[in-house]
Structures are given as structure tokens and as C-alpha cells.
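Submission sheet (multi-component)
Chains listed below:
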Amino acid sequence: PRPADRAGDTGSTLVTGIGSLVTNDPEAGSGGPLGLLADAAVVLEAGRIAWVGPAAAAPTGADRVFDAAGRAVLPGFVDSHSHLVFAGDRTAEFNARMSGTAYTAGGIRTTVAATRAATDQALDANVARYVAEALRQGTTVLECKSGYGLTVEDEARALRIAGRHTDETTYLGAHVVAPEYADDPAGYVDLVTGPMLDACAPHARWVDVFCERGAFDGDQARAVLTAGARRGLTPRVHANQLTEGPGVRLAVELGAASADHCTHLSDADVAALADAAGTTVATLLPGAEFSTRAAYPDARRLLDAGATVALSTDCNPGSSFTTSVPFCIAVAVREMGMTPDEALWSATAGGAAALRRTDVGRVAVGARADLVLLDAPSHVHLAYRPGVPLVAGVWSAGRRVV
Ligand code: NIG
Ligand code: FE
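Outcome: structure written.
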């Protein structure tokens, strides 16, 4: 067999010599939910995992062999929350914040103006750039929202562009009330649930709403989510980010796939998320608290109550301008009470659960062959060595892409 190379996307690949393999299949190995295997091998074929087990028992005859030389291999990261269709940046706002100005989400309108003014090509190039950046850091599945257009045409355009880069597209026409409707928020909700939804539904899998003071209240959020659901879009909610509010309970009541942020939670919110652990994932986005200098969500409280927790980047130019899941893992471990094992699970299997995907987020026969090779002996180093570019290789659907 010839050594694995980047062009090799046909035939089968044996990845062997894996010092520590995270499978997220508790039956397959030790370490509880992570299903850890030492001295492991994986066979990738036709874009899927064809075999997983001890290296000593690996089948022979693969078209190429890659020797991990004792390093760690994990499922590709599943980033279930990002806002990548935008133009411009908000450096000045970030600078002001780091001098003491509070984050209010009012800056969304700055990005809306820049995004509306951008060409399709410029927006597409931006998304491509950030998707590639994420891939280099191990993200093999990435959800992407609209929400910086806020007109029928600009929201539909954002989703068309997002759809060229991912199947996980989310209609977020209800990000904030469009400036043209500042005096008529009810009129804007009618637009979002009417003509804008008509134009966007064909290009989206999910519907989202920013349920927050200054954005949309519980009744408006319910109208947006139920209208989307009637058009076949499954709800997910920006909930309880800046203040306690009705977002989390609404997400659970409507069977949303995810309640995202979950920074300000009452005991009742935590209990609701725990009861809904099989339906509604609590998606934590520590990049947002990092970049807005706010208190982090309490992952420990959610995990101890029994909620399903995902970790994602929330990449956007305002509150969290990072594509790095490894960064989010390190922060979640240092600041949010997560163990390195929990954080790794949340960034892979947790993200998959938040997207209702069973084909990604794990290394098991039949799953998509999305793997990350770390220049480290175990996944723990992602938190132990913060800020170090440890991702040394990425396979996406069986193909070596990094
Ligand atoms: O998830 N909270 C709403 N939306 C984004 C922030 C958007 C922005 O500031 O541009 C978020 O944090
Ligand atoms: Fe967000």
C-alpha cells in the first residue's frame, strides 16, 4: 500500500497506530461515553467508517495506510451554531467593549448594513474562508444561520450562499427587528412568518429566533418558530443569553432541537432541559462570554441535572469571532466546570445531537468517516495545551482534507 495522501479519496484507508481513539461509542471502549480505545485502528471506505478496533486485529488489504504514530484520533467536531454569512467586522465595537462598554447585540445592525451592501461573491468568499478555517481546526460539520440580511431577498440570499457550504442551514430572519420596522415590530414578525419564510424555507433545514429583551419576546418567538415548523423547519432557539427569559422553556415546549447560549437559567429552566434531555440539547457557546466579557454559562449545573450539553463556537463578527472548537473546549474546561472528557463529548456527539444527526460525532461502523488527528497523545491535551494548534490532520467523509 502507498502512504495516505491528500488526493486519495477513492479506495480504502487504514488509519492505524492510534494511541488513543475517541469513538463516542460506550460499548466500544472504556472511559464511559467517550468509548476510548488504546492502540486502535480505523478503516475508511466509500466515505464511511468500515471497521474500528484494536490495531493488532485490523484487516489487511486497504488501498493506503496512515500511521498515526501513537497520536490521538477523534470524531470531527460538530459545530452546531454559527453565523457565517456576513460582511465587515466589528473591531471598533470589540475595542470599546474591552474598554468597558457592555455588549447589547445592538451592533447586529452594523453587520446587517455591511452584509446588505456586499456582493454575493464577497459573501460566498467569506463563508468559504471561515468554513476552511474551521476545517483546519477539526470542524467537519458546521451549522450556519442567516440573520444579517433581514429583508426577504437578503435572508434568502444568505441561505442560498450558506447552502453551498453546508446542509445545516438555519433561517434566522428573527435575529433582530429590521431597521425599516423599528416602529412596527409586529409588522416585522408578520414579514418573518409570511413572505420571508416563503422565500427562505426552501433553503433551510432549521428555524431560529433570538428570544431576548431588545430582540423578540416569548409570544413573538413562538409565532416565528411555529410558522417555521409548519413549513417543515425544526426549531432551535437563541435562549437566555443576556437575561433570564422565556426562551429555554419555549424551546423545550416546542420540542426544539436545541436551546442555545443558556447563560442565565432559573432552576425551572435547568429542570426543563434535564427532562427534555432526549429532545432539546443545551448548546453552550463560551466564545460569546469570552468576547463580551460576561459570566460563563454553568455547564456543571446542567450536566449534574442530566441535561444533554453541546459546545459550539457561535462564530459571528459581534459576540464571538472564533471558528475554533478547540478554543471553546479549553474555555469550557477552565471556566465552566466541564471535564476534558465532557467537553470533548459535547463538541462532537453533543453537537451531533443538537443537529439530530446519528451519522456524525462518533467513530463507529457506518458513521461518516470524519476524523481529527491530534499532535498529542490524547484528547485531554485540547484543554491542557490551550491555544496550541494541535490539529495535525482531518478526514472528511473519508478524504484527507487537512
Ligand atoms: O448568538 N445573540 C444573537 N446573535 C449572536 C450575536 C450577533 C451579533 O452580535 O452580531 C449571538 O451571540
Ligand atoms: Fe448565535
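Remark: Residues 1-8 have pLDDT under 50 and may be disordered.
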